[in-house]
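REQUEST ID: PR-0412
SUBMITTED BY: lab tech R.K.
PRIORITY: routine
TASK: structure prediction, single protein chain
INPUT:
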Amino acid sequence: MAHLSDSSEQRSAEPLIRQAVSVAVGVELTPKSLRLDGGARVDVDGVAQDETVFVEIFAHQGRLKGVQFHKVARDALKLITLGRSRPESRLIIAFCDADAAACVSASSWLAEALRTWRIEVFVVNLDADVRAGLRSAQARQIMVNPPET
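STATUS: complete
OUTPUT:
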């Protein structure tokens, strides 16, 4: 049996999201490890072969909570860093649920940051079975610290 925190459902959904974004932007996107100008390595969920499009994917269903919001903010910072060294590139954060994407819309500070840094937000529609699998995995992954005895 997989560990309760296993994210195989999310990993399985990412290629579907990446493919939908590829179709929408008209270029093939593949996961890639890149070197930043200072030499640090960064893993990117989707990169165009000519490095003109960079995509970070967040495979989550429902509104985001604490650490999930911070993960999106870290992904945005990664895209901003890539965009600074490649100023003509297109930067995208892709979600598979409108409720999850709500954290980067309207008047949140993160939404303002994405607009400021020209990071586009895509919401991809996934098959109902894939969405159900993601919700099931998220329910399984809820972990809390055990009570002290």
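NOTES: Residues 1-6 have pLDDT under 50 and may be disordered.
REVIEWED BY: pending
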